[in-house]
Amino acid sequence: MQAIDYVAPNSVDEAVSALAAGGDTARPLSGGTDLIAQLQEGRSDLDTIVDVKRIPELTAISIGGDGLTLGAAASCHSINNTQAIRDAYPALIDSTHLIGGTQIQGRASLGGNLCNSSPAADSIPNLIAHSVICHIAGPNGRRTVAVEDFCTAPGRNVLERGEFLVALEFPKPPANFGAAYLRFIPRNEMDIAVVGAGSSVVLSDDGGTIESARVSLGAVAPTPLFVQEAGEALAGQPVSEETLARAAELAKEAARPISDMRGTIPQRKHLSAVLTQRTLRIAIDRARGTKTVDELGRLNGHG
């Protein structure tokens, strides 16, 4: 069995130094639910693990007038049990409730889910729908990246040598904002999305017009997709089934799936449209104040 050095820094600067000392064979550990499995299966060859969960900035949850900031290592359990998040960002719970079971959620984090960069990740379409900004630290200082630009290929992202994700910044939701995430899985025993969809809308004060929208898809391309054309098609349009159907068709056209053991290309294209339309309906209901987290949980097959 390979010996691996374990480092648990207490600050961002200490983590940057530890990763620099480890070079190409060092990796940060946020929750470890993916990384440890990869090591056990021989899919990662590392000499040093840098556990960032002791760094206060990486486990902090801050919500206020400017929006929400989640430390990259803040656990899904912590997010699920923060009432202010459930109230202001209910769609976020759509994803955190789906990432493993209760025990996994005690370790797993949205930052780790993003850095694992799976095309089928349950958090990333939702993060894209929320216009999240990624805060990154490394040997050359700090920088930010829009979440839709973070993933570059299956299992790969924009993080350069010695860099790691520090925090996820969610802007304050504007008035009449709503969002939702849904996925389709072939059966409960296969807990990986065949297709996932995240959508958000901002409605007019009377709730009858979509002022702006964002649509994202997972598991239908090498990286999670930001379907910008679908959001643009919704902007300024009345809330109607015809409007939503047009956006769903654009999402279907944008999808570039493959056929594998979980689903076929035609099935995934079809589901891209179906889930986009459903998440838009839920987002609109939430923007109007008529959809609850518990109701969505039942739609996702939980609760």
Textual characterization of the structure:
With 303 residues, the protein is α+β, with helices and mostly antiparallel strands. It folds into two domains: 5-171, Uridine Diphospho-n-acetylenolpyruvylglucosamine Reductase, domain 3 (2-Layer Sandwich), CATH 3.30.465; 177-299, Enolase-like, domain 1. The chain has helices spanning 12-22, 35-40, 56-59, 76-80, 83-88, 90-96, 102-105, 110-116, 124-129, 228-234, 241-254, 265-287, 293-299, and strands at 5-7, 26-29, 48-51, 61-64, 67-71, 133-138, 141-146, 151-153, 156-157, 164-171, 177-184, 195-203, 209-218, 225-226, 237-238. Helix 2 links the parallel strand 2 (26-29) and strand 3. The protein is globular. The N and C termini lie far apart (41 Å).
What is the element layout, followed by pairings?
Blueprint: E1 5-7, H1 12-22, E2 26-29, H2 35-40, E3 48-51, H3 56-59, E4 61-64, E5 67-71, H4 76-80, H5 83-88, H6 90-96, H7 102-105, H8 110-116, H9 124-129, E6 133-138, E7 141-146, E8 151-153, E9 156-157, E10 164-171, E11 177-184, E12 195-203, E13 209-218, E14 225-226, H10 228-234, E15 237-238, H11 241-254, H12 265-287, H13 293-299
Parallel strand pairs: 1-3, 2-3
Antiparallel strand pairs: 4-5, 5-10, 6-7, 6-10, 8-9, 11-12, 12-13, 13-14, 13-15
Helix pairs in contact: 10-11, 11-12
Q: Which structural traits does this protein have?
A:
single chain; 303 residues; alpha+beta; Uridine Diphospho-n-acetylenolpyruvylglucosamine Reductase, domain 3; Enolase-like, domain 1; 2 domains; five-stranded antiparallel sheet; 35% helix; globular
